[in-house]
Amino acid sequence: MKKEYLLGNDAIAYGLLEGGIEASFAYPGTPSSEITEKLIELSKTHGFYTEWSVNEKSAYENAYGVSLTGRRAAAIMKHVGLNVASDAFITSAYTGIIGGLVLVVADDPYAHSSQNEQDSRRYALLAKIPYLEPSSIQEAKDMAAFAFSLSEKTGLPVMLRSVTRISHGKSDVELGKLNHIKRDSQFRKDPSRFVMVPSNARTALKRLNEKQPVLKKIMEEMPFNKTDGNPSETGIVASGISYPYIMEMKAEENLPVAVFKASTFPLPENKLALFIKGKKKILVLEEGDPVIEEKIYIISKSCNPLVCISGRMNGIVPEGGELSVDLLKKILKKVSGAEEKQQGEPESPASLPVRMPVLCPGCSHTGSFYILKKVFGKDALFPGDIGCYTLGIQSGTIDTCLCMGGGINTGSGMSRFEKEREVISIIGDSTFFHAGITGLINACYNKANQIIAILDNRTTAMTGHQPHPGTGITAGGEKSAGIDIEKIAYACGAEKVVTIDPYRIKESVQKLKALKGKKGVRVIIAKRGCIFVERKQKEKFRVDAEKCTGCKICMQINCPAITFKENKAAISLYCTGCGICAEICPAGAIKKYEKM
Amino acid sequence: MKKCDVLIAGVGGQGILLCSNILGTACIIEGMPVKGAEVHGMAQRGGSVEAHVRIGCFYGPMIPRGSADMLIAAEPLEGARFSGWLKKGGIAVVNTAQIPPVGQTYKTEDMAEIIKESAGNIITRDFTEEAIKLGSIQTLNVLMLGAALKFLPLKKESIAAAIGKTVKKDFIELNAAALNRGISITLQ
Description:
The structure holds two protein chains of two kinds. By secondary structure, chain A is of the alpha/beta class. Chain A has four domains: about 5-220, Rossmann fold (3-Layer(aba) Sandwich); about 225-335, Rossmann fold (3-Layer(aba) Sandwich), CATH 3.40.50.920; about 365-535, 3-Layer(aba) Sandwich (Rossmann fold); about 540-595, Alpha-Beta Plaits, CATH 3.30.70. Chain A contains 20 helices and 22 strands. In chain A, helix 3 packs parallel to helix 4 (about 80-95), helix 11 crosses helix 12 (about 290-305) and helix 16 runs parallel beside helix 17 (about 485-490). The longest helix of chain A has 23 residues, at about 200-220. Chain B is an alpha/beta fold. Chain B has a single domain, classed as 3-Layer(aba) Sandwich (Pyruvate-ferredoxin Oxidoreductase, domain 3). Chain B is about 40% helix and about 25% strand. Chain B contains seven helices and six strands, in the order E-H-E-E-E-H-E-H-E-H-H-H-H. Chain B has helices at about 15-30, 75-80, 110-115, 125-135, 140-150, 155-165, 170-185; strands at about 5-10, 35-40, 50-55, 70-75, 85-95, 120-125. Chain B has a six-stranded mixed beta sheet with strand order 2-3-1-4-5-6, with helices on both faces. In chain B, helix 2 links the parallel strand 4 and strand 5 (about 85-95). At the A-B interface, strand 1, strand 8, helix 10 and strand 20 of A face helix 1, strand 2 and helix 2 of B.
């Protein structure tokens, strides 16, 4: 069999292909984006449909539609994306599905690149559908392929739950056979099943509940769940990525513990009851909420009520964050009752300079933030949103960040009572299409007094430059209708729309002054492609040390290419030639290379 | 089978992830089990990047603290930051050329001292300068890989073949030269 060194997300894409995917739908979001990137690449040789949808709700509903025609489809998103798709997701369990429907969701414990650490498995429980939780990248691929047949067997959507360390982990992966069946099935009308009016919903819930014992039976036999049969009195129930962590420790330190790998929901309750029966102590290891731990309490009640259960619920495992071999060492010491050593391990040298994430040299947002602050003052309120521009937190031009599209509505709410200060909601282009348009309509319809600044850098930058409706390019690279943000803004009822180029500081400041202190919803579109999209080699800039007065005004834009040495500014080779610093330099000391 | 945990650290844009993919692919070529991980923050450029490569490993993607056999640091501050991952007496290959975070200063020698607290053997050099001499700053990662090769349980031929599989066609020759140059640095 062919082996490759694959990123977890690439392995999931191969798995979906092996499982016979006919269509995939996704909105980018770390740590899930590479799955679709890989699928787009694979679709070119294997001829299935891929799409960057406008948001996760669109993605899920599209996948559901494909499933109703009898074909295998996947919806792919990050954990918070499932909040957006949840409305469709939960009721889709009521109607059930026809073609295999797989929901791939990548959680982000420790919130490496997210606004929260929510556990998607709770959603699977809420919807009463099965989930599969891989413990390795090989298993992620295998489960992705298997999930389609499980979905068809149960008539339910199946969740594949990844986490950051699976999605962004890498491994030697053995690839399997492709199961590429082109189906010619059609949607068969069945209103009693697919039209969720109340009377049908009540019957659907009954059907969904009747499936639960069947699901339990299937999971009881599932080979993804297993135990090593060690007779130890201490048992560890491990799920997901915590399984290889405990197995590594067990091997390295010859730990006398029994391990049960619990990889599915419903849990294999009978097997777990047998495992718990002879144990004195059980430790539950899982990333996210104590989802399995809660079930272990319930299962142990009938098979071993005196067993001592440890995990997140009794504080032995920290309540938040991700697990690691290092953390497991500490946890196991606590479980065995050994005192934790006071000195512990040395942490990273504390005094080292921090490398904060920064906007790239030449980022158009740098100009936008400078302009907005210049026009509306630093006392203005800047309810923000999710994207690279959230880094405006460093320049005081992002005051809130809640969720996709949240900044516009938050701003409308603020503006009802903040009469003295101007409210400027900041949102990116892709985020605007994702969840901003309804907020704009709401603001206009309800006569809010606010400014909405759409920072249009012509791409979904933060997740790796995926196209969106404004770019007029589809996932597969085809041309499509490029949606015009300015026209949308007017159609939604904006009083005035002003488009600026954030590289042209003085001109933009002049243009925007007219919006200050006015009534109604005013929209600014700051349009300039991300440096990774424009990719034009521009001439770099340089500081004329003789003219530089050391005023540090150029340092205000936080450009990583500008340094300050011996009371003078200097521009490094990382300059991309945007010229923002040259425009704001009061001494005229910054010039293009050629002019020096 | 020889196990070897390698932590590669640097700054976004230095080719850290490609470097780890070359190592991982070389393991596949030699039929060795391999695990790994990439860790990068939110920003495209300028953030810390770390890649774990666990040669001969059957377990998880992440190297536990204090147990890496080797640290390859493409930037001295990042080398110091991740030196806690190195086991006592481990090997460190460190680029001395700095990429300071906005508004921060530090001394390369101080960073090397921090790394020496764990490293039993440290190879320091201005690899950026070497890369520029070779004709492209982009060869930095493969140059450093070449310098590290002597201490890795992998054959040069496998690394070269892995470069052929992972690097863009136009750059294969340049990177092959960088590998050789890197190897010659530790032979001196």
